[in-house]
Design a protein that fits this description.
The protein is mainly beta and about 400 residues long. It has two helices and 22 strands.
Length: about 400
């Protein structure tokens, strides 16, 4: 009888524990879907969306803290990296083990603020210490009685390296697209007390975001920048080789074509840039009795992928790969012949490196080394003394150094 009573008590305790757990889950869920009401001391809400992509069977290995700075009473932002801890307000990021979430910040008053830095805290990771990185986003303004959706999503991913037990992680701030902003606003409308607030203008005002320091082998915590860029080629040279035939005789020649390159680039964000390259090179291919004057003009629309290799607050080393199409016009002239023009379409492929230093808050000055992998061929002919005179040529490009001016927008 005693054993039966004990068994019933144990069973009853399990049932009560289950009910309590379900009640706690229900209450927690209810709290998580609730916004505070507006008051004199609570008059603005900032919402930062986040997404965790965990491709491993282990728990997420990093927590993150958002550090905010309010606009100084002087009325202007101090762009130096010196600050006191009391100037910053910190809020832990609400991250799931896997999936999307929202970090709701209610402690910031209405007014102008900025996300100053993000602190990364390792969770049971060997030989890793907390690391804080500076973020350079445009300041945002919290309206009184309004909810402002931050125009970037904090994105964290984690995956195993091959078949080992090692893992790698990456973290980025990705620009929210308009449909993402509307989706988050619709999600907020399901929260209790939402009717007490007004959604602020949710058009993203995006700008450059870069970390203060990065020593990790994983991806850099920085938003691929939107920028305008002007690249000026220095000492650009091509090498031309030729084969000339007339009346059954053959000859060869070569020429060094010198000229200029200029590129106009728009950095669209997400490490992708669109550019237009304009170049002109000329030289002379000498024969035993005369010479051929060669001028080649190129117009090249291309797309470029940029990846930061080393980056801190004042220095950037970037790897690049560009691909596009060459629209080429080559003019060949000879003192005894009419000018011939050859138009061709070629494929452009060009890896490169860029290194730059910040000389102003929104400007990088640097140099780039590009190694063109493309070359092109052409031919023209003339009717000379009743016989066809043929000129076949191949033009190969040499590595070129660019002086680069990059302006964030």
């Amino acid at each position: 009888m005693v054993l039966m009573k004990q068994a019933k008590c144990i069973k009853l305790n399990k049932i009560l524990s289950s009910i309590a757990a379900l009640t706690m889950i229900f209450l927690f869920t209810g709290c998580a879907q609730k916004l505070p009401k507006t008051s004199e001391n609570l008059n603005a809400i900032l919402v930062i969306p986040a997404k965790v992509v965990n491709k491993t069977q282990i728990e997420r290995k990093y927590d993150y803290i958002f550090n905010f700075q309010s606009k100084p009473s002087s009325g202007s932002w101090d762009e130096s990296d010196s600050y006191s801890e009391t100037e910053l307000f910190s809020k832990g990021a609400n991250l799931k083990q896997n999936g999307e979430s929202l970090t709701i910040v209610i402690e910031l008053p209405a007014g102008e603020h900025r996300l100053y830095s993000i602190t990364e805290n390792p969770i049971n990771v060997i030989n890793k210490n907390p690391e804080t990185r500076r973020i350079r986003h445009r300041p945002f303004t919290l309206g009184k009685g309004k909810i402002y959706i931050y125009p970037y999503r904090f994105h964290y991913s984690q995956e195993l390296v091959g078949t080992t037990k090692m893992f790698r992680s990456s973290r980025k701030l990705k620009t929210l697209k308009k449909n993402d902003l509307y989706s988050i606003s619709n999600q907020l409308k399901q929260f209790k007390n939402f009717e007490s607030w007004t959604l602020q203008n949710i058009v993203a005002d995006v700008t450059k975001a870069r970390p203060l320091e990065s020593t990790k082998s994983s991806e850099s915590l920085y938003q691929s920048t939107q920028h305008l860029e002007l690249d000026v080629g220095i000492n650009s040279k091509y090498k031309l080789t030729s084969e000339i035939s007339w009346l059954g005789s053959y000859g060869t020649g070569e020429a060094e074509l010198e000229g200029n390159d200029i590129r106009f680039v728009y950095g669209a964000g997400n490490n992708v840039s669109w550019g237009i390259r304009i170049s002109s090179h000329s030289g002379k291919d000498y024969t035993s009795s005369a010479y051929y004057s060669i001028t080649t003009n190129e117009f090249t629309p291309y797309v470029r992928y940029d990846h930061a290799l080393v980056e801190n607050d004042n220095f950037l080393l970037e790897g690049q790969i560009a691909a596009g199409f060459n629209l080429i016009s080559t003019e060949i002239d000879h003192p005894s012949l009419d000018k011939g023009t050859v138009s061709t379409l070629g494929f452009m492929l060009e890896p490169g490196l860029f290194t730059g230093m910040k000389i102003q808050n929104q400007m990088l000055l640097g140099a780039g080394l590009n190694v063109p992998l493309d070359s092109y061929k052409g031919s023209t002919n003339w009717l000379y003394l009743g016989y066809s005179r043929n000129y076949n040529y191949t033009i190969k490009k040499s590595p070129v150094i660019y002086l680069i001016f990059r302006f964030s927008i």
